[in-house]
Design a protein that fits this description.
2 domains; Cpn60/GroEL/TCP-1; 3-stranded antiparallel beta sheet
Length: about 550
């Protein structure tokens, strides 16, 4: 039998019908660089204290007005595969140190922009990648020498507030004087004996509309944004039991029919269940429990809880239940049973308070110290509350970073410019083609002070020239004063950036850029078919109707 003839159709003959593929320098590499540049340009205008806000409406029609880079890249839902790598790098930065996501996106975009110039000069992609990786290693080494400040005592509110100020000012400029001491107090109050065990989950934020930021306070314990269920609103020296099941009379799983022949039978129908429920609640009361937290309370159960003077707190969210258990050191029970002494939590004071027009239940732990601290945040709009909450989350992560590495570098662009200057010197000592790559890497670091100048309405070119001249004259901590539009000493102005944030930002941005530049071919399968969404079908039907 003669062999069947298969025509040679190139790569498209190997792949499924409908697959798209692009390759080569112009089609693949430069397209990827262009997509990443656009993402970087979008995010970097939000950097710094005068960064612009972005208004994003996501697929659930939820509105975000924020300058937080992590929120912007998360809610944008980027689909371009190369730009997605930059988004992944920023997400890795968020998981690792909790701050500096905007730095990663802006720096990676600028590195790719400089890489395009190198490729058009005639350098090979592999040479650019090797040069960037060598420059990244050198930058991380130089960074360790640029530490200018160290928090010697992370249990001192004043020194911690000073270190957190720059992180907050970069997101909420003007509010750092109010928020930094609050966050420092909250973090220090829940600091365990072993500082390395600090968890950001121990700091919660309760957002309440009304009032101003200056009305915000720190509560040692948990705050639930709802009142109690019964008439008991205040319990001192509370003994708390936490249940993950509904607190009501047990119901059978099967349906049944009951035939009642007299009024007496009707009266006695539920008596056995009621007496059984009462005996359970009585036993719980005798065990010393004075507060019960559960997802739901039955009417009959509420009657007996009132009878035995037990405060009932409804927690619809499992996270709220978990916070109450962590605050009071109670063990959550899955069944409605009498808790043992070890399973009962303790609170100095549990009471319902009215803040503004919002009723909330506060679990206070003042005497023996709480494992949880809550920042009661007040502001005029929900969007402002949400944005301040993101700034607080970043600051708490900076505090966590302090427990690992308390060193800081000069802020306001001073660190990046000094790194750039030293890398330029290093590039001059290199004999091969990678000196051009290292030089461009050093130029890319200037994007941070440049953006700070642009967002502050200053002449970026003149400011960068002035700052570069100051660094060349030996002023390693010279940074940009965004208020005066002049050069300032970042250390004297107490403007610091955390060293560990810069370290991971440089590392992750360099790795992401190297990965993108190594791509020379993009192959995309045809998207899976299927029926149209219902709203589209309805729209088509309406169009066809006479």
């Amino acid at each position: 039998m003669a062999p069947s003839y298969v025509p040679n159709q190139g790569l498209s003959g190997l792949l499924k019908e409908g697959t798209k593929q692009v390759s080569g320098l112009d089609d693949a590499v430069l397209r990827n660089i262009d997509a990443c540049r656009q993402l970087s340009a979008l995010v970097r205008s939000s950097l710094g204290p005068n960064g612009m806000n972005k208004m994003i409406v996501n697929h659930l029609n939820k509105l975000f007005v924020t300058s937080d880079a992590a929120t912007i890249v998360r809610e944008l839902e980027v689909v371009h595969p190369a730009a997605k790598l930059i988004v992944m790098a920023s997400e890795a930065q968020e998981r690792e140190v909790g701050d500096g996501t905007g730095f990663v996106v802006a720096f990676a975009g600028e590195l790719l922009d400089q890489a395009e110039n190198l490729l058009r000069m005639g350098l090979n992609t592999a040479e650019v990648v090797q040069g960037y990786e060598r420059a990244g290693q050198e930058a991380l080494g130089i960074l360790q020498e640029l530490a200018v400040h160290k928090v010697s005592d992370i249990r001192d509110i004043k020194s911690v507030s000073k270190a957190l100020t720059s992180c907050i000012a970069s997101k909420q400029y003007g509010l750092e004087g109010t928020l930094a001491p609050l966050i420092a107090k909250a973090c220090i109050s829940v600091m365990p004996a072993n500082a390395n065990m600090f968890s950001v989950e121990n700091i919660r934020v309760a957002k309440m509309l009304g009032g101003s930021i200056t009305n915000s306070t720190v509560v040692q314990g948990a705050v639930l944004l709802r009142g109690s269920e019964g008439t008991i609103k205040r319990v001192s020296d509370a003994r708390v039991a936490v249940y993950t099941c509904d607190f009501e009379a047990s119901q059978s799983e099967t349906k049944g029919t009951v035939l009642l022949k007299s009024a007496e039978e009707f009266t006695n129908y539920t008596k056995s269940e009621e007496s059984m429920l009462e005996s359970k609640i009585k036993a719980i009361s005798e065990a010393g429990v004075s507060v019960i937290a559960a997802p739901k309370f039955g009417e009959v159960a509420m009657h007996f809880l009132e009878k035995y003077k037990i405060m009932a707190i409804k927690c619809m969210s499992k996270f709220d239940l978990r916070r109450v258990a962590r605050t009071t050191k109670a063990i959550a029970l899955a069944k409605m049973q009498t808790p043992t002494t070890d399973e009962i939590g303790r609170g100095d004071l549990v009471q319902v308070e009215e803040i503004g027009s919002t009723k909330c239940t506060v679990f206070r732990q003042e005497k023996e110290g709480s494992r949880l601290a809550t920042i009661l945040l007040r502001a005029s709009t929900q969007n402002l509350l949400d944005d301040i909450d993101r700034a607080i989350d970043d600051a708490v992560n900076v505090f966590k970073g302090m427990t690992k590495d308390p060193r800081f570098v000069a802020g306001a662009g001073a660190c990046e410019l000094e790194l750039s200057r030293r890398l330029q010197k290093f590039a001059e000592t290199r004999p091969g083609l990678d000196q051009y790559c290292i030089s461009k890497y050093a130029e890319a670091l200037e994007v941070i002070p440049r953006v700070l100048a642009e967002t502050s309405g200053l002449d970026a070119t003149n400011m960068i020239s002035t700052l570069v001249a100051a660094h060349a004259a030996g002023k390693a901590t010279a940074g940009l004063d965004v208020e005066e539009g002049a050069v300032m000493d970042s250390v004297e102005a107490s403007v610091f950036d955390q060293l560990i944030v810069k370290h991971w930002g440089i590392k992750l941005a360099t790795d992401a850029v190297a990965t993108i530049l190594r791509v020379d071919q993009i192959i995309m399968a045809k998207t899976a078919g299927g029926p149209k969404p219902r709203d589209m079908q309805a729209g088509d039907a309406n169009d066809e109707a006479p």
